[in-house]
Each structure stands twice: as structure tokens, then as C-alpha cells.
Design a protein that fits this description.
Layout (H helix, E strand, L loop, with lengths): L22 E6 L8 H15 L3 E6 L5 E4 L2 E4 L5 H5 L7 E6 L5 H9 L8 E6 L9 H15 L4 E4 L2 H7 L7 E3 L24 E6 L8 H8 L5 E6 L5 H7 L6 E4 L3 H9 L3 E4 L10 H8 L3 E5 L4 H5 L4 E3 L4 H12 L2 H14 L5 H13 L12 H6 L7
Parallel strand pairs: 1-2, 1-5, 5-6, 6-7, 7-8, 9-10, 9-12, 10-11, 12-13, 13-14
Antiparallel strand pairs: 3-4
Helix pairs in contact: 1-13, 6-11
Length: about 400
């Protein structure tokens, strides 16, 4: 079994707004070079905190043994609890990211067995809900179970109002809203796409991994037979061949993985960023915010999180409904003034999703005093609170 990856402390260059440094440990399932929204978010927060003068170590499940069952990955990182436990006094705060079966749930439970006087403050960042169509009942049970386990943290952090409402409980800890962000400087250049006036096809952009729940098949079907809709697909994955075959005869083009510079150019050269995910494994959609920062109109599913991001300046469609998605896209194609107006509004809206603001809010959360609550470490109530009594 591999040892946990503890990132070396980086000598920080203090920002003007840096405060007294704190020592933080982040426990998560993945980080770069893994390509995912979760990995990118964790890297951006940890790097940003280091630049502000804080010591941040990261323990990731990527270096521990694991086995996969479909979209599920079961990890042995929890077996290294003794090693992590021995370092607890070195940290002021522990930030656990999840849900990650056998990682986030295990460490939330294990940390709660340590008396409060001997453990740091525990923050839990909740990224998404577990939902898999082929394991519908099992994932509903786990999702309900994990929401209860999350209450073992001293504070919960979420990225959208929908998840703040979902995780809030009169019997649980406070739930802090900290949206993920985008590097606004990256999109400060002028758009390369000419203003949409209806004389050319509406340019649609999908960015993401080629996984079943990402809704790529639905997007391809929605543009099929509509020459006024041109789709560009960015990303790789095991289903790429299947999607290329499905897209045969359509306007869709696949460009694979691209550099950050090329991706920025693609955002600036398109009119709409579309993310038609089919279940709650998609919970925020960093690419929606990136597209908005470049002036794209966001189109996404009526799922918690992604709909919060896109609703003010975009279009929301029923998850998995190809016809609803097609109608929304064709309506935009037929209304150039609406596309131009929503694109301009999206660029303004994206300013509220600056990574520097996200990092600053995490810094406040890390430095906040421990709330005065009853410690239920050794009580029966704490154990009962972690057991799913029913599935909502």
C-alpha cells in the first residue's frame, strides 16, 4: 500500500492581504494531475492559501490502493488513519472533501472519535450528490447516509445555494456558502467570435470528461438535423468512440484534450457553453463559469448547483430531455439579440466567481473560531446521527 501524499510546504510569497498563517490539512480523493472539476478546485484553493501565507498539506487517495465498480471507487486510505492521527496536533484545521466513499465518510467518523481538545477544527466541503442510474437505490441510501455523516464536522462548506439548503439542518453544524471560481484574467481578452447576428450557425461548446452522466449523447442528439447549430466537443474518455459514431452526419466536431491557452481561445470563439448533465454527480460546473467569463450563454440541466450558476443569464432544461434541450438551443439560434444580451450579462455575472474571492472565503473559514457546541464524541447520539434511518 502506498503512503498518503503529503505535499511539501511551499515557501509562500505573502499577498498584501495575507493574515497570520494557519496550518491546514486537506483530505480528498483526487488532485492534479487527475483531470476533474474537484481536483482543479482543490488545487486552486490550496495553492491560493499558500500564496496568502498559510501552510497547506494535502492527503489524497490517489496514492492508496483502490478498486472500481462502475463509477464507484473504493479506497484504502482510511487504513492509514494511524499515520494521519499522529499528525493531528500539527494542524489548526482539517478540511475533508467529499463525498468520496471510504475516504470522506471514514475520516469524518474517525476524527469525531478524537476528543475536541485533541483535534483540530474539522471542516467538510461537500461537492455533489451521489446518483447513478444503474445503482439507483444503493446510491440514494449512501447519499442520505453521507449527508448525516457530514454533520459530524464542525462546519460544512458548499458551493451553491441549492446544496446549502440540502445540507442545512437544525440538528447539524453551520453550512457556509463558498462558490468555486474562475481566473478572470485568463478571459480578459476580446472575444474572437463575431457578434451573433443569425447569419452564421450558433456555436456551441461542450468541455468535460466523456462519462455517461455528462449528457454528451443528449447534446449530440439535440443538434442532429439542425445545421444552424454547430457543436465543438472538448475532452477525452472511454466513451469517445461511441460519441463520435453517434455524431456521424451531424455538425459536431471533436478536438480532444487541449491546452489551457487553446481552451481559452475556444471559449472566446463560441456563443454558448452547454452542460446537459443527466444526474447530480454534476453539481457546480466550473466550465459554465469559464464560458460565462468569456461571454458565452450557459445552457444546462435543472440540477442543483449547475442551475444556480446558469439561471440568471442562461437557459435551464430538463435533465435528460433531448427535445427540451433542442428547443432551448434552437430558440437561442433564432434570437440573435437575446444571445448577445445574455452573453454580455454572463460576462458581468462571472465577475462574482473570482478565484481570489473563493480563496479569501476559505481563508476566513479556516481562521474562524471553533463554534461553541456540545461535544458528542462519546455519546450514543453521535453514532445514531451517522446512521441512515430512512431515505428521503
Amino acid at each position: 500500500m502506498g503512503r498518503p501524499v503529503l505535499e511539501a510546504d511551499v515557501s509562500p510569497s505573502l499577498d498584501a492581504g495575507a493574515t497570520t498563517g494557519t496550518r491546514a490539512l486537506i483530505i480528498c480523493s483526487e488532485q492534479p494531475p487527475t483531470e476533474s472539476g474537484v481536483a482543479r478546485a482543490i488545487a486552486s484553493v490550496s495553492d491560493g492559501l499558500r500564496r496568502r501565507g498559510h501552510h497547506v498539506d494535502v492527503v489524497t487517495g490517489g496514492d492508496a490502493r483502490y478498486f472500481s465498480l462502475g463509477e464507484f471507487r473504493f479506497n484504502t486510505l482510511a487504513l492509514q488513519w494511524r499515520r494521519v492521527h499522529a499528525t493531528l496536533r500539527d494542524y489548526d484545521v482539517i478540511n475533508i472533501h467529499g463525498p468520496a466513499p471510504t475516504i470522506s465518510d471514514a475520516y469524518l467518523g474517525l476524527l469525531r472519535t478524537v476528543p475536541r481538545a485533541h483535534r483540530p477544527r474539522v471542516l467538510y466541503t461537500h461537492h455533489f450528490s451521489i446518483e447513478l442510474d444503474q445503482w439507483h437505490r444503493a446510491t440514494r441510501v449512501y447519499d442520505a447516509f453521507h449527508r448525516r455523516v457530514a454533520r459530524l464536522a464542525d462546519e460544512i462548506i458548499v458551493s451553491s445555494p441549492s446544496y446549502q439548503q440540502l445540507l442545512s439542518s437544525r440538528h447539524g453544524p453551520p453550512v457556509r456558502l463558498i462558490p468555486w471560481g474562475v481566473d478572470l484574467q485568463r478571459f480578459s481578452g476580446r472575444r474572437t467570435a463575431p457578434p451573433y447576428d443569425g447569419s452564421r450557425p450558433l456555436r456551441l461548446l461542450f468541455v468535460g470528461q466523456m462519462r455517461p452522466y455528462k449528457g454528451i449523447a443528449e447534446i449530440i442528439q439535440a443538434v442532429s438535423g439542425s445545421p444552424e447549430l454547430h457543436l465543438t466537443v472538448v475532452g477525452k474518455g472511454r466513451l469517445e468512440g461511441q460519441y463520435r459514431e453517434l455524431a456521424s452526419g451531424t455538425t459536431a466536431r471533436f478536438v480532444g484534450s487541449v491546452s489551457d491557452e487553446e481552451l481559452t481561445r475556444l471559449y472566446l470563439d463560441h456563443d454558448v457553453v452547454v452542460k446537459a448533465s443527466t444526474n447530480k454527480l454534476e453539481a457546480f460546473g466550473l466550465v459554465l463559469v469559464e464560458g460565462m467569463a468569456a461571454g458565452c450563454v450557459p445552457v444546462t440541466s435543472d440540477l442543483p448547483g449547475v442551475s444556480d450558476v446558469a439561471r440568471p443569464t442562461g437557459r435551464i432544461v430538463r435533465a435528460g430531455d433531448v427535445e427540451d434541450l433542442r428547443r432551448a438551443l434552437l430558440d437561442l439560434a433564432a434570437n440573435p439579440p437575446t444571445v448577445r444580451e445574455l452573453g454580455a450579462r454572463s460576462r458581468v455575472s462571472a465577475r462574482s466567481y473570482d478565484w481570489s474571492r473563493t480563496v479569501e472565503q476559505y481563508e476566513r473559514a479556516f481562521l474562524a473560531p471553533l463554534p461553541e457546541v456540545i461535544d458528542l464524541t462519546d455519546s450514543v447520539s453521535a453514532a445514531e446521527d451517522a446512521v441512515p434511518l430512512e431515505v428521503p
